[in-house]
Amino acid sequence: MIDLPVAPSPSERQRKPDWLRVKLPIGPEYKKVRALVDEYKLHTICQSGNCPNMGECWGAGTATFMILGNVCTRSCSFCAVKTGRPTEYDTDEPRRVAEAIDLMQVKHAVLTSVNRDELKDRGAEIWYQTVRAIKERTPQTTIETLIPDVRANWEALDRMIEGGQEVVSHNMETVRDLYRKVRPQGNYARSLEELRRIKAAGKRTKTGFMVGLGETEDQVEQLLDDLLQVGVDVVTIGQYLQPTAMHLAVDSFVTPDTFAHYKALGLSKGFDYVESGPLVRSSYHAEKHI
Predict the structure, then answer these.
(1) Does residue 9 have a known ligand-binding role?
(2) pLDDT > 60? residue 139
(3) What average pLDDT does the structure give for the chain?
(4) 11 among the known binding-site residues?
(5) Known binder of ligand: residue 268?
(6) Model-level pTM?
(7) DSSP secondary structure of the chain
Protein backbone atom coordinates (compact mmCIF):
# COMPACT_ATOMS: atom_id res chain seq x y z
CA MET A 1 0.00 0.00 0.00
CA ILE A 2 1.36 3.46 -0.88
CA ASP A 3 1.03 6.62 1.20
CA LEU A 4 -1.72 8.85 -0.19
CA PRO A 5 -2.36 12.53 0.51
CA VAL A 6 -4.91 13.05 3.25
CA ALA A 7 -7.53 15.76 2.96
CA PRO A 8 -8.85 17.49 6.08
CA SER A 9 -12.02 16.00 7.52
CA PRO A 10 -15.19 18.12 7.20
CA SER A 11 -15.05 18.99 10.91
CA GLU A 12 -11.62 20.56 10.41
CA ARG A 13 -12.66 23.05 7.75
CA GLN A 14 -15.37 25.66 7.19
CA ARG A 15 -16.29 24.76 3.63
CA LYS A 16 -15.86 22.17 0.89
CA PRO A 17 -12.52 22.04 -0.92
CA ASP A 18 -12.15 24.05 -4.13
CA TRP A 19 -12.26 20.87 -6.21
CA LEU A 20 -15.88 20.27 -5.13
CA ARG A 21 -17.27 23.57 -6.34
CA VAL A 22 -19.59 23.51 -9.35
CA LYS A 23 -21.27 26.16 -11.46
CA LEU A 24 -24.98 26.81 -11.21
CA PRO A 25 -27.07 25.36 -14.07
CA ILE A 26 -27.55 28.01 -16.77
CA GLY A 27 -27.81 28.35 -20.53
CA PRO A 28 -30.40 27.74 -23.26
CA GLU A 29 -29.81 23.99 -23.58
CA TYR A 30 -30.27 23.53 -19.82
CA LYS A 31 -33.54 25.51 -19.97
CA LYS A 32 -34.71 23.44 -22.95
CA VAL A 33 -34.11 20.14 -21.15
CA ARG A 34 -35.73 21.46 -17.97
CA ALA A 35 -38.83 22.51 -19.95
CA LEU A 36 -39.14 19.08 -21.60
CA VAL A 37 -38.76 17.26 -18.28
CA ASP A 38 -41.49 19.44 -16.78
CA GLU A 39 -43.79 19.20 -19.81
CA TYR A 40 -43.68 15.40 -19.92
CA LYS A 41 -43.93 15.10 -16.12
CA LEU A 42 -40.74 13.05 -15.95
CA HIS A 43 -38.47 12.46 -12.99
CA THR A 44 -34.69 12.72 -13.25
CA ILE A 45 -32.11 11.49 -10.78
CA CYS A 46 -30.30 14.73 -11.64
CA GLN A 47 -32.91 16.63 -9.61
CA SER A 48 -33.99 13.99 -7.08
CA GLY A 49 -30.40 13.04 -6.26
CA ASN A 50 -29.05 16.61 -6.15
CA CYS A 51 -26.37 15.67 -8.70
CA PRO A 52 -23.50 18.19 -8.84
CA ASN A 53 -23.12 17.67 -12.60
CA MET A 54 -26.69 18.61 -13.52
CA GLY A 55 -25.65 21.93 -15.03
CA GLU A 56 -22.94 20.37 -17.19
CA CYS A 57 -25.00 17.40 -18.38
CA TRP A 58 -28.26 19.26 -18.97
CA GLY A 59 -26.33 22.05 -20.65
CA ALA A 60 -25.12 19.44 -23.12
CA GLY A 61 -28.70 18.29 -23.73
CA THR A 62 -28.54 15.04 -21.76
CA ALA A 63 -30.23 13.75 -18.62
CA THR A 64 -30.65 10.57 -16.60
CA PHE A 65 -34.33 9.67 -16.36
CA MET A 66 -35.70 8.07 -13.23
CA ILE A 67 -38.66 5.81 -13.98
CA LEU A 68 -41.24 4.25 -11.64
CA GLY A 69 -41.80 7.43 -9.67
CA ASN A 70 -39.67 9.46 -7.27
CA VAL A 71 -40.50 7.75 -3.97
CA CYS A 72 -38.25 4.86 -2.91
CA THR A 73 -39.10 1.94 -0.64
CA ARG A 74 -35.54 1.96 0.76
CA SER A 75 -34.04 4.39 3.26
CA CYS A 76 -30.34 4.35 2.43
CA SER A 77 -28.25 6.61 4.65
CA PHE A 78 -26.62 8.47 1.75
CA CYS A 79 -29.43 9.08 -0.73
CA ALA A 80 -31.46 12.27 -1.26
CA VAL A 81 -34.38 10.52 -3.00
CA LYS A 82 -37.61 10.58 -0.99
CA THR A 83 -38.47 7.46 1.04
CA GLY A 84 -42.00 6.20 1.58
CA ARG A 85 -44.83 4.15 0.10
CA PRO A 86 -44.84 4.72 -3.67
CA THR A 87 -48.23 5.16 -5.32
CA GLU A 88 -47.11 5.90 -8.86
CA TYR A 89 -47.22 3.16 -11.46
CA ASP A 90 -47.70 4.77 -14.84
CA THR A 91 -48.00 2.35 -17.74
CA ASP A 92 -47.78 5.32 -20.15
CA GLU A 93 -44.38 6.33 -18.76
CA PRO A 94 -42.37 4.31 -21.33
CA ARG A 95 -44.01 6.23 -24.19
CA ARG A 96 -43.43 9.61 -22.55
CA VAL A 97 -39.77 8.87 -21.79
CA ALA A 98 -39.16 7.70 -25.35
CA GLU A 99 -40.87 10.77 -26.80
CA ALA A 100 -38.86 13.14 -24.61
CA ILE A 101 -35.59 11.42 -25.55
CA ASP A 102 -36.53 11.79 -29.21
CA LEU A 103 -37.32 15.50 -28.80
CA MET A 104 -34.08 16.06 -26.86
CA GLN A 105 -32.14 14.26 -29.62
CA VAL A 106 -30.31 12.17 -27.05
CA LYS A 107 -27.67 9.91 -28.55
CA HIS A 108 -27.04 7.92 -25.35
CA ALA A 109 -29.78 7.66 -22.74
CA VAL A 110 -29.39 6.61 -19.12
CA LEU A 111 -32.35 5.21 -17.21
CA THR A 112 -32.51 4.55 -13.48
CA SER A 113 -35.26 4.02 -10.93
CA VAL A 114 -36.16 4.02 -7.29
CA ASN A 115 -36.45 0.68 -5.51
CA ARG A 116 -39.97 -0.73 -5.79
CA ASP A 117 -39.77 -3.58 -3.30
CA GLU A 118 -43.55 -3.61 -2.91
CA LEU A 119 -44.02 -4.73 -6.51
CA LYS A 120 -43.82 -8.45 -7.16
CA ASP A 121 -41.71 -7.89 -10.28
CA ARG A 122 -39.74 -4.97 -8.72
CA GLY A 123 -40.96 -2.82 -11.63
CA ALA A 124 -39.31 -5.04 -14.24
CA GLU A 125 -42.12 -4.75 -16.80
CA ILE A 126 -41.93 -0.95 -16.85
CA TRP A 127 -38.15 -1.25 -17.24
CA TYR A 128 -38.55 -3.58 -20.22
CA GLN A 129 -41.29 -1.51 -21.88
CA THR A 130 -39.30 1.73 -21.49
CA VAL A 131 -36.20 0.30 -23.17
CA ARG A 132 -38.32 -1.15 -25.98
CA ALA A 133 -40.19 2.14 -26.49
CA ILE A 134 -36.91 4.05 -26.84
CA LYS A 135 -35.43 1.48 -29.23
CA GLU A 136 -38.57 1.52 -31.40
CA ARG A 137 -38.82 5.31 -31.55
CA THR A 138 -35.10 6.14 -31.87
CA PRO A 139 -33.24 2.94 -32.74
CA GLN A 140 -29.99 4.88 -33.05
CA THR A 141 -30.09 5.79 -29.35
CA THR A 142 -27.86 3.66 -27.16
CA ILE A 143 -29.05 2.96 -23.63
CA GLU A 144 -27.59 2.33 -20.21
CA THR A 145 -29.93 1.07 -17.50
CA LEU A 146 -28.88 1.63 -13.89
CA ILE A 147 -31.07 -0.93 -12.16
CA PRO A 148 -31.88 -1.39 -8.46
CA ASP A 149 -31.35 -4.35 -6.15
CA VAL A 150 -33.99 -6.93 -7.10
CA ARG A 151 -33.59 -8.77 -3.78
CA ALA A 152 -32.65 -11.99 -5.55
CA ASN A 153 -35.75 -11.99 -7.77
CA TRP A 154 -33.75 -13.24 -10.72
CA GLU A 155 -36.78 -13.56 -13.01
CA ALA A 156 -37.35 -9.84 -12.52
CA LEU A 157 -33.68 -9.19 -13.30
CA ASP A 158 -33.92 -11.15 -16.54
CA ARG A 159 -36.92 -9.08 -17.65
CA MET A 160 -35.22 -5.80 -16.73
CA ILE A 161 -32.19 -6.47 -18.90
CA GLU A 162 -33.65 -8.16 -21.98
CA GLY A 163 -35.04 -5.08 -23.73
CA GLY A 164 -31.94 -4.44 -25.81
CA GLN A 165 -29.93 -1.92 -23.78
CA GLU A 166 -26.18 -1.79 -24.40
CA VAL A 167 -25.00 -1.31 -20.81
CA VAL A 168 -26.50 -2.57 -17.54
CA SER A 169 -25.33 -0.98 -14.31
CA HIS A 170 -26.02 -1.80 -10.67
CA ASN A 171 -24.27 0.29 -8.04
CA MET A 172 -22.41 -1.26 -5.11
CA GLU A 173 -22.27 2.20 -3.47
CA THR A 174 -19.67 1.35 -0.80
CA VAL A 175 -17.17 -1.19 0.51
CA ARG A 176 -18.28 -4.40 2.22
CA ASP A 177 -17.53 -3.32 5.80
CA LEU A 178 -19.67 -0.17 5.55
CA TYR A 179 -22.74 -1.82 4.02
CA ARG A 180 -24.81 -2.03 7.19
CA LYS A 181 -24.28 1.68 7.84
CA VAL A 182 -24.65 2.95 4.27
CA ARG A 183 -27.13 0.48 2.73
CA PRO A 184 -28.99 -1.08 5.69
CA GLN A 185 -31.55 -2.75 3.40
CA GLY A 186 -28.96 -3.88 0.88
CA ASN A 187 -26.62 -6.84 0.87
CA TYR A 188 -23.05 -6.81 -0.44
CA ALA A 189 -22.98 -10.43 -1.63
CA ARG A 190 -26.42 -10.12 -3.22
CA SER A 191 -25.41 -7.07 -5.24
CA LEU A 192 -22.27 -8.85 -6.42
CA GLU A 193 -24.42 -11.78 -7.49
CA GLU A 194 -26.71 -9.43 -9.40
CA LEU A 195 -23.70 -8.05 -11.27
CA ARG A 196 -22.44 -11.57 -11.95
CA ARG A 197 -25.77 -12.54 -13.48
CA ILE A 198 -25.88 -9.39 -15.61
CA LYS A 199 -22.48 -10.28 -17.04
CA ALA A 200 -23.50 -13.91 -17.55
CA ALA A 201 -26.44 -12.64 -19.62
CA GLY A 202 -23.93 -11.11 -22.04
CA LYS A 203 -24.32 -7.47 -21.05
CA ARG A 204 -21.63 -4.83 -20.71
CA THR A 205 -21.60 -4.46 -16.95
CA LYS A 206 -21.00 -1.38 -14.85
CA THR A 207 -21.07 -0.33 -11.20
CA GLY A 208 -20.29 2.70 -9.08
CA PHE A 209 -19.31 3.43 -5.50
CA MET A 210 -18.59 6.39 -3.23
CA VAL A 211 -15.56 7.24 -1.12
CA GLY A 212 -15.27 9.60 1.82
CA LEU A 213 -17.51 7.45 4.01
CA GLY A 214 -14.73 6.11 6.22
CA GLU A 215 -13.40 3.34 3.98
CA THR A 216 -9.71 2.42 3.85
CA GLU A 217 -7.57 1.97 0.74
CA ASP A 218 -7.37 -1.77 1.44
CA GLN A 219 -11.18 -1.97 1.53
CA VAL A 220 -11.42 -0.12 -1.78
CA GLU A 221 -8.94 -2.52 -3.34
CA GLN A 222 -10.90 -5.50 -2.00
CA LEU A 223 -14.07 -4.12 -3.56
CA LEU A 224 -12.30 -3.68 -6.91
CA ASP A 225 -11.06 -7.28 -6.71
CA ASP A 226 -14.58 -8.53 -5.93
CA LEU A 227 -15.96 -6.60 -8.91
CA LEU A 228 -13.38 -8.11 -11.22
CA GLN A 229 -14.31 -11.55 -9.94
CA VAL A 230 -17.90 -11.14 -11.16
CA GLY A 231 -16.89 -9.68 -14.52
CA VAL A 232 -17.63 -5.96 -14.17
CA ASP A 233 -16.35 -3.93 -17.14
CA VAL A 234 -16.74 -0.31 -16.01
CA VAL A 235 -16.37 1.31 -12.57
CA THR A 236 -17.22 4.84 -11.44
CA ILE A 237 -15.82 6.27 -8.19
CA GLY A 238 -16.96 9.57 -6.69
CA GLN A 239 -16.95 11.63 -3.50
CA TYR A 240 -19.86 11.16 -1.10
CA LEU A 241 -21.60 14.46 -0.38
CA GLN A 242 -24.09 14.68 2.48
CA PRO A 243 -27.45 15.72 0.96
CA THR A 244 -29.12 16.85 4.21
CA ALA A 245 -28.37 17.00 7.93
CA MET A 246 -30.45 13.83 8.34
CA HIS A 247 -28.05 11.77 6.21
CA LEU A 248 -24.64 10.31 6.97
CA ALA A 249 -21.95 12.90 7.57
CA VAL A 250 -18.96 13.01 5.23
CA ASP A 251 -16.00 11.29 6.89
CA SER A 252 -13.40 12.90 4.62
CA PHE A 253 -13.02 14.84 1.40
CA VAL A 254 -10.87 12.59 -0.76
CA THR A 255 -8.18 14.42 -2.73
CA PRO A 256 -7.96 14.44 -6.54
CA ASP A 257 -4.59 12.67 -6.24
CA THR A 258 -6.22 9.79 -4.39
CA PHE A 259 -8.94 9.56 -7.03
CA ALA A 260 -6.23 9.42 -9.68
CA HIS A 261 -4.55 6.62 -7.72
CA TYR A 262 -7.79 4.62 -7.58
CA LYS A 263 -8.26 5.08 -11.33
CA ALA A 264 -4.75 3.84 -12.05
CA LEU A 265 -5.24 0.93 -9.64
CA GLY A 266 -8.49 -0.12 -11.31
CA LEU A 267 -7.06 0.08 -14.81
CA SER A 268 -4.00 -1.90 -13.75
CA LYS A 269 -6.28 -4.65 -12.45
CA GLY A 270 -7.97 -4.96 -15.84
CA PHE A 271 -11.20 -2.93 -15.87
CA ASP A 272 -12.05 -1.56 -19.31
CA TYR A 273 -12.88 1.86 -17.98
CA VAL A 274 -12.53 3.59 -14.59
CA GLU A 275 -14.13 7.01 -14.09
CA SER A 276 -12.72 8.37 -10.82
CA GLY A 277 -12.97 11.92 -9.50
CA PRO A 278 -14.54 14.03 -6.75
CA LEU A 279 -17.62 14.96 -8.80
CA VAL A 280 -18.01 11.68 -10.67
CA ARG A 281 -21.47 10.12 -10.47
CA SER A 282 -22.82 6.92 -12.03
CA SER A 283 -24.02 8.44 -15.28
CA TYR A 284 -21.25 11.02 -15.70
CA HIS A 285 -19.68 10.61 -19.18
CA ALA A 286 -21.84 7.48 -19.58
CA GLU A 287 -21.61 7.76 -23.36
CA LYS A 288 -17.95 6.74 -23.06
CA HIS A 289 -18.78 3.49 -21.28
CA ILE A 290 -20.46 1.61 -24.13
Answers:
(1) no
(2) yes
(3) 86
(4) no
(5) no
(6) 0.85
(7) ------PPPGGG-SS--GGG--PPP-SHHHHHHHHHHHHTT-EEHHHHTT-TTHHHHHHTT--EEEES-SEES---TT--SEES------TTHHHHHHHHHHHHT-SEEEEEE---TTSTTTTHHHHHHHHHHHHHH-TT-EEEEE----TT-HHHHHHHT-S--SEEE---BS-GGGHHHH-TT--HHHHHHHHHHHHHTT-EEEEEEEESSS--HHHHHHHHHHHHHTT--EEEEEE----STTSPPP-----HHHHHHHHHHHHHHT-SEEEESTT--TTTTGGGG-
